[in-house]
Specification:
Elements: E1 4-9, H1 14-26, E2 29-33, H2 43-49, E3 52-58, H3 66-74, H4 76-81, E4 88-95, H5 102-115, E5 119-120, E6 147-150, H6 162-182
Length: 186
Amino acid sequence: MPRTVVVYHSGYGHTQRIAHAVAEGADATLLAIDAEGNLPAGGWELLAAADAIVFGSPTYMGNVSWQFKKFADASSKVWFAQGWKDKLAAGFTSSAGMNGDKLHTLDALFTLAMQHSMLWVSQGLMPANTKAARRNDVNYLVSYSGLMAQTPSDASADDCLPGDLETARLFGARVAQMAARLAPQA
């Protein structure tokens, strides 16, 4: 079975909650970037052994958090050796605003993956964009390039919306499905 790792930074717990849902859907290992922008011991080795890497960051000021950016910059050693070439990649973000320039964060995650010569997995879900749509519908924020989630700024991580959590689980399942399709056959 292909190995998937969800590597993420979360400042207040909302992105962590989304990361857990993605990992649940993908049957993935979670790898948290700490408050100083570092991976735990063995983190780089875990990423090296992965078949798919899902990147996650909150959207702060229209981009990834500085902690995630530190991790991304530190991956330049892996980039130089093309250590993640042809691995699957995907990305997600969460912020307080319904938009909040989350697409810019997803673009940053996509660009990181492209720099590493990875293969990007889109969300693969139809949008909830009809008059009958409700906020807890799957893909209510209508993202195609990756997962977007939203929780009000005065809400705790426990208040992440069920529709966003289900979207995250389905997104993780899609990454796992794509990894299985691309895995070498025995």
